[in-house]
Amino acid sequence: MIKRINMSISYLCNLNCTYCFLSQESRLENTEFTRFDDLYNFLLTVNLDKLVKVNLASGELTLKPSLVRKVCRVFRKVERVRDVVFQFGMYSNGTNPDVLISLLRDGTFTPGLTSVSWDGIASEVTRNNYNHSYTIDDGMININKIYGSGYANDIIVRTAITKDLLYLNSLERAVPLVQFLEFYTKVINWEYYFLLDDDDYRNPNLIPYFKNFIDQCIGLYRASNYRLKIYNMRKLDETYSNTLPDIAREKKLWCHSIDGAIDITIDGKVTPCGSFTPNYVYGFKNLDMFDDISQPFNESKIIQIAMDNCINCKKCDFMNCGNKHCHECSRIIPYRWGSDFEYKAKQVCALRTVEREEFLKDMI
Asked: Cα dihedral angle (291, 295, 299, 304), rounded to 10 degrees?
């Protein structure tokens, strides 16, 4: 039964983040999803849960508000003939706060499913708008504008872990990122995330900087009496808290498709997850095996494809690393990185270990 749908409707973006999971060529494309009738007929064939969360992707969709609303209307049309409710969210870079606020206010997007990506001190280093830099101040102003519109308790701010962020965060002249979030932007819901592919993660010299960053996160999380919802810390809390039953702390290797989700590409292919999308920098190249939305949904086929192509999860030594909170997925490694599995799959292993050891240090 499908509980989540990720759907790519436009790749166009007004920023040029050096670490973006989309290729630079894709971010300049003005291609849009156009197969609305096929989408409607396809959704009628899907075994849907009563509540389905839909994430619209992959560019900066506040550049395309009319397209967003048009896609959502197709789902609303399905609601009128099926016992299902759709809730919509997106990841925004926050550069168009007025448009994002309008999409929240008219009910197009659900605030709790909507995230704003902001890279703090690293913004000045890694982002440009082709004409001018997207600075710390720009991000702070835009986030505060969104928060001031009544969404402070719901909107999630997400920050990518980059070398620039960790190095600059440690400089004495700079306000540490987590303090900046708490005292300057008044962010309540925040999470950091690891990149799909970053060789810097394997650099031993990065570890002390990441450790300092994690210690800041842990300290602020606990000092705020858990008012600041750092989702990474909450995940650690839930995983390693002795108050939870053992079964809740067991390591689980999960897959999006097996867990009730599908991905619809911009050209209408139905895949297990976004990693099969060809416009990833290291994307899946062969989409011939996947059904199209012009065909009835075949859930068993999607699950089988995922199991066949995500088999490399079994190669990773997750079970012996002790990092029960890790949910990194090494899906379709052969298609994205060839045979160099061990090198790429373990980029974040050391960082996950730092998370666990630092979090548990004060709990013993």
From this structure: -30
Amino acid at 314: K
Cis bond upstream, residue 58 (ω within 30): yes
Q: Which two tokens stand for residue 285?
A: 């190249």
pLDDT in the model for residue 179: 67
Amino acid (1-letter code) at residue 241: S
Q: Which residues of the chain have pLDDT under 50?
A: 124-131, 243-257, 281-282, 312, 314, 331-341
**Residue 37: CB partners within 8 Å, gap ≥ 6?**
none
> Beta partners for 271?
263
Q: How far apart, in whole angstroms, are the C-alpha atoms of residue 130 and residue 102?
A: 26
DSSP 116-162: EE--GGGHHHH---SSS---HHHHHHHHHHHIIIIITTTPEEEEE--
- Give the Cα separation of 287 and 278 in Å (integer): 8
Q: What pTM was estimated for this model as a whole?
A: 0.82
Q: Are strands 270-271 and 261-264 parallel, antiparallel or unpaired?
A: antiparallel
Confidence (pLDDT) at 153 = 82
Q: Which residues contact 282 (CB under 8 A, 6 or more apart)?
A: 196, 197, 336, 337
How many beta carbons lie within 10 A of that of residue 108, not counting itself? 19
What's CA 192's distance to the chain center, in Å?
A: 10
Q: What is the pLDDT of residue 222?
A: 81
**Helix (H) and strand (E) counts for the chain?**
15, 9
Q: Which helix (H) or strand (E) holds 112?
A: none
Instruction: Specify the DSSP element, H or E, that contains 256.
Output: none
SS3 string, 263-294, reads EECCCCEEECCHHHCCCECCCCCCCCCCCECC
Q: Which residues, including other chains, have CB under 8 Å from residue 164's CB and lie 6 or more apart?
A: 121, 122, 125, 126
